[in-house]
Design brief:
With 280 residues, the protein is α/β, with parallel strands linked by helices. The chain has a single domain, classed as Alpha-Beta Barrel (TIM Barrel). It is built from 10 helices and 9 strands. The strands form 2 sheets. Strands 1, 2, 3, 4, 7, 8 and 9 form a 7-stranded parallel β-sheet that branches. Its cofactor is Mg(2+).
Length: 280
């Protein structure tokens, strides 16, 4: 295994998520976090990230089941009056593909989220999307086109080793487009099949059978609190995921793997330096 990136998604969604990211990075194996720039606790997440220069932060673009950056008046076909996207990704994906005016609004919102991230002053380590919406060809094309204006250099490929057969054509299409754009990407992910349940046993199982190449393990940690962070996260075991990220056994397994550790920039930077040394 060449490299491992351990990422927390939904950074900025809630103060409990922000607290977990800090704990898991300072006292655990978390190397990266994906920021929701339009989420309620995004200002707090940005403040935390500025105090953690070794945490690799990227943009977690939201086009479903979350809040927009632009107001309803700017993207009336995408969000309700409160600025919230629908959770119906199939319907939205069809509209993105078929309706030019809806696609133009999606492009405006994607650009606005990149601009909001740039305004944070944080380095852009990577880009991914909430619910992996970038597997939709139209969404991916917009991200690649707009993201290059903002220094996009790495994206997540949600390719789980034993993932759904139904996703394979979309993953293959995304892989080809990302590669042709010259964007770095992981080879595999862990965390898709066990969304919200990446506990210590799940981490150790992945690391006992690591794939070749670069692996991204992503999860959704949060500190203990009352109620679900969002209705869609009902049943997520946030505290168990945080415990896994702080587990000595997980840290030992990562260390013994011999893989490069860090965010996308660090892992791919180390890989490039290693290849240069080998060819020298």
């Amino acid at each position: 295994m060449r490299g491992v990136i351990v990422t927390a998604d939904d950074f900025g969604l809630h103060a409990r998520v922000n607290e977990a990211v800090v704990l898991a990075h300072c006292d655990g194996v978390l190397s990266a976090a994906s920021l929701m720039v339009g989420a309620p606790a995004a200002p707090g997440a940005i403040a935390c990230a500025r105090e953690l220069p070794t945490l690799a932060v990227g943009l977690h673009l939201v086009l479903a089941d979350g809040y927009s950056v632009l107001p309803h008046s700017a993207i009336p076909d995408l969000v309700d009056r409160e600025g919230r996207f629908t959770s119906s990704m199939t319907f939205e994906g069809l509209r993105f593909f078929c309706l030019p005016h809806v696609r133009a609004q999606a492009a405006a919102e994607i650009r606005a989220q990149f601009e909001a991230y740039a305004a944070s002053g944080l380095a852009l380590d990577h880009v991914n999307t909430h619910k992996h919406f970038h597997l939709h060809p139209t969404v991916l094309a917009l991200i690649l086109d707009i993201g290059l204006d903002f220094g996009l250099r790495a994206m997540r490929l949600p390719n789980e080793m034993h993932g759904s057969i139904m996703l394979r054509p979309w993953i293959a299409l995304a892989k080809g487009r990302i590669d042709r754009a010259g964007i770095d990407r992981n080879d595999y992910v862990a965390g898709l099949a066990l969304t919200g349940r990446m506990d210590e046993a799940a981490f150790l199982d992945v690391l006992r059978r690591p794939p070749r190449g670069v692996l991204e393990i992503y999860c959704h940690p949060a500190s203990v609190g009352t109620g679900s962070i969002t209705p869609a996260m009902h049943g997520y075991r946030h505290a168990d995921e945080l415990a896994a990220l702080r587990s000595p056994a997980v840290a030992a397994a990562l260390a013994s793997s011999g893989a490069m550790l860090g965010g996308f920039a660090a892992v791919f930077g180390q890989a490039a330096r290693g290849e240069a040394r080998m060819s020298a």
